[in-house]
User: Fold these one by one.
Assistant:
Number 1:
Amino acid sequence: MLEQDRRGVVRDSVGVGLAVGAYGVAFGAASVAAGLSAVQTSLLSLLAFTGGTQFAVVGVVAGGGTLATALSSGLLLGSRNTLYAMRLAPLLQVRGLRRFAAAHGTIDETTAMAVAGRDPILARLAFWWTFVGIYLFWNASTLAGALGAQALGDPARFGLDAVVPAAFLALLAPRLRAGAVERRIAVSAGLIAVVLIPFTPPGVPVLASTAALLLAGGTR
C-alpha cells in the first residue's frame, strides 16, 4: 500500500468531515429555536451524534411534542446505524474500549467512506479519520450555531423558527433527485406527515413518516 493512498484517504476523510460538520451550525440554530439551551444542544451533538436523529428530536420538540415522542422518533431514525454496525464489524475488527468509540462513530458518512476502501487497512483509516473529522467539526459548529442563535434573542424575529422544517426538507431533497423508487418513498413519507398533522399530537407525524421511510428502506 502506497503512502500516497493513505494521504488520499486522509484528505478525502477530512474533506467529508469539514463538509458535513459545517451543517452543525443549522442544527445548533434549530435546536435553540426549538427551545433547548446551548448546553442541551451541545450535549445532544456530543452524545447522540447523528444528524437526522438530532433534527428529528428537535423537530418534535419544536412542534410541541412530548419528550417520549421526541426520543422515540430519534431512536427509530437512528436504528439504521445497527445495520451499519453489522456491516462494519468484520471490517474494523475493533476490541475492548475501542468498540464503544467505533459504535459511536458508526453513521452514514463513516460507513460510506469505510466500505469504499480498496483494502481493510484503507477502510479502517477512512472510518476513523472521517469519524474524528465529522465529530470535531460537527460539535464545534453546533456550539457556534447555538450560541449565535441564543445571542439573537427571540428566534421568530429572525425566522430561525423555520430552520427545523427547512432542515427536514434538505434531508428529503436528495431522495427527490434519486431514482423513481426513492422519489416515491420520499413523497409518500412527506404525505404521511402532512395528512397526520391536523389529527395527531405534535411529533406523531414525524414519527410515522420516519417509520415509513425505514420500513421502505429509506435512510438519512
Number 2:
Amino acid sequence: MSLLAHVLLLAFAIGFVTGLRSFTPSAVVCWAAHLGVLNLRATRLAFLGTLAAAAVFTLLALGELVADKLPKTPSRTAAMGLSARILLGALCGSAFALSSAQVGWLAGALSGAVGGVVGAFVGYQARARLVKALNVPDIFVALAEDAVTIAAAILIVTHV
C-alpha cells in the first residue's frame, strides 16, 4: 500500500472512531502528539502536542463518556453531535496527514470528516441493533462501545 493510501485510510479510521465518541480519539491524538508518536512540530497543529491540549481533550473525553449514558443526551446523528464529529474527525485526519509530511492536510481532513459521518451513523445503528438483539440495557452496549473506541483510537495512532 502506498504511503498516501495508508495515511488516508488511517485518517478515515480515526474519523470513524470520532463518529463513535467525538472527544476520545481527539484526546488520543493529542497524547500521541505530546509523546512524539505523531510529529506535529512545526505544523499548524503543533498545539495539539501540548500538555494543555492533551489535558483539555482528556477532560472533554471523560465528560463525554459520562454524558453519553444520560437519558437526555441528544443523538450523535443530530446536527450538533454530527457537526462535532465532522469537525473533530477532520482535525484528527489533518493531524495524521501533517504528521506524515507526505499527504496534504486537506486530504487528511476530508478523509477524517467522511470517517466521522460514517462512524456516527454506523455506530448509532450498531448500538441500537445490538441493544435490541441482545435484549440488554443500552448502558452495557454503550460501555462496550467506549472500550472499542478507546482501543481503536490507540491502535490507529500507533500505526501512523
Number 3:
Amino acid sequence: MNMTLLKALIALVPASRLLSGSAILFSRRRGVSTFLQQLGEGALVVVVLTHVSKAIHLFPWMNWGLEDNPGHYLGLRSAVLGLTSFPIGYLLCALTKRHP
C-alpha cells in the first residue's frame, strides 16, 4: 500500500470525527464561533482528501507531486484556512460559553 494513502486514511479518521462533532455543535448552538469551527474542520477534511486524491492519482490533470500545481495550492489554502478558523472558533466558543 502507498504510504501517502495510508497516512491520509489514518488522518481522515480524526478529521471526520471532528467534523461530525462540530456539525452537531453547530446544529445545537448556532453562532459565529461554531460556524468558524465547522468551516475550519471542513477545510482540514479537504486537506486530507487532497492527499487521498494525490495518493490514488484521482485527478491526473492536476499534476500531483509537481511544484506549482493546483492541488498543492488547494491543500495549502485549505490548511491555512482550517488551522486559523478552527482554533479561533474554538477560542470564541470557550470565551462566550455561558455557565449556569
